[in-house]
Design a protein that fits this description.
Largest sheet: 2 strands, antiparallel
Number of strands: 4
GO molecular function: cytochrome-c peroxidase activity; electron transfer activity; heme binding; metal ion binding
Low-confidence stretches: 1-27
Mean pLDDT: 92
Keywords: Heme, Iron, Metal-binding, Oxidoreductase, Peroxidase, Signal
Subcellular location: Cell envelope
Strand order of the largest sheet: 1-2
Number of domains: 3
Number of helices: 21
GO cellular component, one term: cell envelope
Structural class: mainly alpha
Protein name: Cytochrome c peroxidase
Length: 459
C-alpha cells in the first residue's frame, strides 16, 4: 500500500523540518473581507486552503514533492486530485461573477458536508497547518452551494423541502412545435436515412428498450459494429453536450452524425437522404408545409431534435421530489442516502441525474488494466474532441434515469449487470469496496428512476 506524505515526513532531514516549521501556516481569514459576496469568499477559501495545489492541472510541484521517497507520492496525489476535480475554471468563475458548473459545485459542497478535504496527510504537515476547513468556512461553502442551486439549477417542479437536493425532478415538458415533433418522430423511425435503407435512429435507440439497443456495441450498416456503447436517447435533451465525448453541442448536431457515419448508417450525404425522402410525395407535402425550404441537413435534423425533446420520462422518484413522500419505501430512501453518502450525487447531479460533466474513468485504479482488452479509439473519450491530454479517458457522465433497463454499462458496454456497475464505480472512482446489502439498497433506489413515456412505464 502506498505510504502517505504524513508517514514519509519523518524521513525529512532536520534542516528541512526546520524550514517547514518556519513557513507560516496559510491564513484562512482573508475570505472574510469579501463579506456579502459568497462567490468570492468561496474562491478565497479554496486558494487560502491550498486546494489548487492538488486540484489544478498546472500547479507547480512543491519543494517536498521533489524529494526522495515522498516525491512520487506527492505527484500521484496531485494527479489524482486533478483527475477528480480541476478547480481552476471554477475559481476563475467565482472571482469574476461567472456561472459555475453544477458538478463542480456539488463536489465542493460534498467536501464541506463530509469534511473529507483537505486530507489529514496534507493539513497535518507543518507547512500546511491551518488549511483544514473550519466550521465557519464550511458554513460559507454550504450556504453558497445552496444559493447557487436555488438560483441556477432548481427544477420548477421541486417541492420546497427538497429544493436543496443534489438531484432534481424533471420539468413537465420542454417547449416544442407539435408539427415538427410529428415529422421528427417519422424521421426517427425512417430507414431511408441509411445508405442501404436498413437502419433508422430507432434501430440503436429503441423507444421500447429504454432508448438503447442493449448491446455492447450497436450494429450498423452491413453488420459493422460501433466502438462505444449506445447511450440512451431518453432525456438526452438535458445533457450538457451529446455523445460520450461531447462532440455535438445539441440534439440537432447529434442527429447529423450517425446518418453519415460509414459504420453506423452509411449514407454518403444529406443530399442523398433528401432525394430519397423527396420521392415520397405524401411525406414531402407534410414536410414542406412546416419547412418550406425543403429537405436538407438542417431541416431533417431540426425535426428529429424537436421530437427528441419530448422524450422525458418522469419517474416515481420525481414524484417524491415533488412532495409525494409516500412515493418511496424506506429501503429506497436508504438507497438514496447511500447514493449521496458515497459521492454518486457529485457527478450524477441535477435534473438528468448525470450528463453535466466529463469524468476520468479510473481515478483510484486503472480501469483499462482491469478490463484487460487493450485500448481502443473509443477509450480516448473527451480527448478526441479537445486534444487536451488531461481529457484522455474522460467521458460524459451518463444519466441514471432508466439505468435499470439500459444495460450493458460504461462507455464500452463491458459491464453487464447493474450490481457489477455499482461495484466498479465504487472501486475505481472512490476507492471503496461496497457491501452486498448496500448494493441492494442502492439498486432499490435506482429502480425508482425508471420512468414513463406517454403514460406507459418503460420496460
Amino acid at each position: 500500500m502506498r505510504n502517505t506524505i504524513f508517514c514519509k515526513i519523518t524521513a525529512l532531514p532536520i534542516g528541512l523540518l526546520s524550514l517547514a516549521f518556519s513557513i507560516s501556516s496559510c491564513s484562512t481569514t482573508d475570505y472574510k473581507k469579501y463579506a456579502g459576496d459568497e462567490a468570492k469568499q468561496v474562491a478565497s477559501i479554496i486558494r487560502e486552503n491550498g486546494c489548487l495545489q492538488c486540484h489544478a492541472e498546472n500547479a507547480p510541484v512543491p519543494f517536498y514533492g521533489k524529494l526522495p521517497f515522498i516525491g512520487s507520492v506527492v505527484k500521484a496525489d496531485m494527479l489524482e486530485g486533478t483527475r477528480y476535480l480541476d478547480l481552476t475554471a471554477m475559481v476563475n468563475a467565482l472571482e469574476n461573477g461567472l456561472p459555475v458548473s453544477e458538478v463542480d459545485m456539488a463536489k465542493v459542497e460534498n467536501t464541506a458536508l463530509s469534511g473529507t478535504m483537505p486530507p489529514a496527510k496534507y493539513y497535518t504537515m507543518p507547512m500546511h497547518w491551518g488549511t483544514n476547513l473550519d466550521s465557519e468556512e464550511k458554513a460559507v461553502i454550504i450556504s453558497w452551494a445552496k444559493n447557487v442551486r436555488k438560483n441556477s439549477f432548481l427544477s420548477p417542479t421541486v417541492a420546497e423541502e427538497f429544493a436543496n437536493e443534489p438531484v432534481q425532478p424533471l420539468m413537465t415538458s420542454i417547449p416544442t412545435d407539435s408539427a415538427k415533433v410529428a415529422l421528427g418522430f417519422a424521421l426517427y423511425h425512417d430507414t431511408r436515412l441509411s445508405g442501404d435503407n436498413t437502419i433508422s435512429c430507432a434501430t440503436c435507440h429503441g423507444l421500447n428498450t429504454g432508448g438503447v439497443d442493449r448491446k455492447q456495441y450497436s450494429e450498423g450498416i452491413k453488420g459493422q459494429l460501433g466502438g462505444v456503447n449506445a447511450p440512451t436517447v431518453y432525456n438526452a435533451a438535458l445533457n450538457c453536450l451529446q455523445f460520450w465525448d461531447g462532440r455535438a453541442v445539441d440534439l440537432k448536431e447529434q442527429a447529423a452524425g450517425p446518418p453519415l457515419n460509414p459504420v453506423e448508417m452509411g449514407s454518403i450525404s444529406f443530399d442523398e437522404i433528401s432525394n430519397k425522402l423527396a420521392e415520397d410525395k405524401d411525406f414531402s407535402k407534410k414536410f414542406l408545409a412546416i419547412y418550406p425550404e425543403g429537405f436538407n441537413q438542417s431541416t431533417i435534423t431540426d425535426a428529429i431534435a424537436e421530437f427528441e425533446k419530448t422524450l422525458l420520462t418522469p419517474s416515481r422518484f420525481d414524484k417524491y421530489l415533488m412532495g409525494d413522500k409516500d412515493a418511496l419505501t424506506a429501503d429506497e430512501l436508504e438507497g438514496y442516502q447511500l447514493f449521496k453518502d458515497n459521492k454518486c450525487a457529485t457527478c450524477h447531479v441535477g435534473i438528468n441525474i448525470g450528463g453535466q460533466s466529463f469524468e476520468y474513468m479510473g481515478i483510484k485504479k486503472n480501469y483499462f488494466d482491469y478490463r484487460g482488452t487493450g485500448l481502443t479509439d473509443g477509450d480516448n473519450g473527451r480527448f478526441a474532441v479537445t486534444k487536451n491530454e488531461s481529457d484522455r479517458h474522460k467521458f460524459k457522465t451518463p444519466t441514471l434515469r432508466n439505468v435499470m433497463i439500459t444495460y450493458p454499462y460504461m462507455h464500452d458496454g463491458s459491464i453487464k449487470t447493474v450490481e457489477d456497475a455499482i461495484r466498479v464505480m465504487h472501486q475505481f472512482q472512490i476507492g471503496k469496496n461496497i457491501t452486498d446489502p448496500e448494493i441492494k439498497k442502492i439498486i432499490a433506489y435506482l429502480n425508482t428512476l425508471t420512468g414513463e413515456y406517454n403514460g406507459t412505464m418503460l420496460q
